Amino acid sequence: MTLAQNKPSDAAHNGTHHNAQDGDFSASLTRLLRPSSIAVIGGKWAEAVVLSCVEVGFKGDIWPVHPQKDSVAGYKAYPDLAALPAPPDAVFLGVNRKTSIAMVEELSAMGAGGVVAFASGFAEVADGKAYQDALIASAGDMAILGPNCYGMINYLDGALLWPDVHGGEAVDSGVALITQSSNLAINLTMQLGGLPVAYTLTLGNQAMIGMADLIKVVAADERVTAIGLHIEGINDAAAFAEAVHAAKAMGKSILALKAGLSDAAQNMTISHTASLAGGNAASEAFFDAIGVGVVHSIEELLGGLSLLHCFGRIDDPSLMTMSCSGGEASLIADAAMRGDILMPELSDDIASQIKATVNPLVTVSNPFDYHTFDWGDSERLTRTFSACMLAGIGLTALIIDFPKPVLGRSEAWQTAIEALLTASQTTGAKAVVLASMPEGIPHDKARWLMERGIPAMRGFDHSIAAIKSAFHASQDRALLIPAGLSQSDAEPDTYPDTFDEVTSKAMLAKHHVSIPKGDIVKSQDAAIEIAGNRRVVMKAVSSALSHKTELGAVRLNIQGKDMVAEAYNELRQISGDILIEDMIDDGIAELIVGARHDPVVGLYLMLGTGGVMAELLRDTATVMIGLPRHQIKDIVLSLKAGQMLNGWRGQAKGDIEAAIDAIMAIQEVALSHASQIEELEVNPLLVRAEGKGAVAVDALIRMRS
């Protein structure tokens, strides 16, 4: 899936209508999310907000506003806004769109903090844009969440501007959840994994407040331990990247569950780069570049947040598991292998220490099946678990599934998790409880564990994925400034939409990318004269010819007058311009190097094993453009082509440094034309033996119209 770019006709959709650096707006938004006083306006929806605040224990003032009632849910009602004791910090506005506009203007004038605009009928409907524009104009510097928005839940302070059911409770600290789906927000509050939720925030139309704004405010709350996002679309990638960077600087790791497909990402493209990268690749590269961990399911999101809530960050994702079943040990080992999580072998010294704590019949390894000889024996289990934790592995997981609560026979299971807790406290190791099934840890046990700093994880594959995502979310990253997000008239040159191969290579050559020596010919006699008696490549050239091999527009190993004449006459049927170049056939490996513009996140770079087999092999890596040389080199060497360049099975090594030089130059071409370039591709970049260089054998450049 890609990051969808928000559109005016969608529910999410007009972008941010404020200066993100505006101090007044930031203060207004903070008042809205962390209020001391709440005004509720409307009928049954407003009354539900009052009841929610009472249930969770809001200690501030609650001021219902109703022109006909004396009280709402037991609280004194005020006939109008002018009658309120003071400007409220937060307002739930549960009236129709026309009334909402008038009341927002009055609230702004009186100095209210911010508003949850519950009403629909704004930019998400055909006739609603004018109403939304009027709503924002009426707000001034006052923050508006929505419109078309369910609202916000602050479980830390008991402030619930939320008109529906929810499953949370008051907490002292916890994770913040920000979502573009109100129903998903409700579902997330119902989780039974013991994860404490500090905030649940929905966005609605994002007319004024976007996800980046909410990330900044919740990250600044010292009671928030981590942030989880559900993302359908991003309307300002630069602001999003800046908000994430600020949050990470405050020690708040972020996970993102992506959803939604971008229309723009599905447009037809003419390069291999787009089809190889796939619509998801640009968004994955963007998240990786800014240090957001990507999850692909709700289970992974909740599991990863549990890890981050308990540990703050995961710097070492390696795993040791302990179970009293060989079957579970095998399954978790397979899951770790599938999820690319390392389960290191134990040193002889550690294995001996563990061996001394268990029955002589037990084999010590990782994963570790400690059998049931010591089941229910707190002292012996504590010694065994402590010895395992001395291995220095990133996470030590006890695999355990509790019996159904109705059976009432879980004393031995409780003994096991208490032994794990004691071992973790004694050794300082990060301990995890891992159930094979979602139902394997009852809610009361999950809560007991989480309150003591032990993540309660459910399901092997989901948990492995959660560990990996939490690790990625813990990586420090420099601030990313996306390139090429907007077109500019600053570049003086005027370009065609699509360059032919000759023009593309000429632009590359200006940036010191090596290209084959070649000439364009327009007659058979000229072709014979230019080719002489050397071995050449002959190609039909046109800006309309992108995949020349598939179109039969390339002839290799042409030598001699007769072969040149035959090839020319065949290619002449495709194009009037024929390119004749030196035949280069001493390559060690072929790379594909592609830069492409994504309408949401800007320019990204795709590197892979290239040549005519590129799309079949699909051996690629996609990153945001502008990476330093050492990271580019690491990526190249991770490819199958990289193995060949390193001298696969005793073969000659390739000129790796020349290949990296060429990639850095290609990247610079894209960056120097960032506001205009749509895509640039070199395929193949032919890497020759050490000391002989790398040559861009074919190239394509297309500019944005």
Task: Give the topology, please.
Elements: H1 23-33, E1 37-42, H2 44-56, E2 61-65, E3 71-72, E4 75-76, E5 90-94, H3 97-110, E6 114-117, H4 129-139, E7 143-145, E8 152-154, E9 159-161, E10 174-179, H5 182-189, E11 197-202, H6 211-219, E12 224-231, H7 237-249, E13 253-258, H8 272-277, H9 281-290, E14 293-295, H10 298-311, E15 319-323, H11 326-338, H12 348-355, E16 368-369, H13 378-389, E17 395-399, H14 411-427, E18 431-435, H15 443-451, E19 456-458, H16 460-473, H17 501-510, E20 518-521, H18 524-531, E21 536-541, E22 554-558, H19 561-571, E23 577-582, E24 587-598, E25 602-609, H20 614-617, E26 620-624, H21 629-638, H22 640-645, H23 656-672, E27 677-688, E28 694-696, E29 699-703
Question: What do the pLDDT scores average to?
Answer: 91
Structural class designation:
alpha/beta
From the N-terminal CA to the C-terminal CA, the straight-line distance is 25 Å
Please give the count of helices: 23
Query: Which CATH architecture of the largest domain would you pick?
Result: 3-Layer(aba) Sandwich
Assess the beta-strand content as a share of residues: 15-25%
Helix content: 25-40%
Tell me about the largest β-sheet: 7 strands, mixed
CATH class of the largest domain: Alpha Beta
Silhouette: flat
Task: Report the count of strand segments.
Answer: 29
> Which residues form runs of ≥5 with pLDDT under 50?
4-15, 261-278
User: Order of strands across the biggest sheet?
Assistant: 9-8-11-10-12-13-14
- CATH fold name of the largest domain: Rossmann fold
CATH superfamily of the largest domain: NAD(P)-binding Rossmann-like Domain
Gyration radius (Cα, Å) is: 31 Å
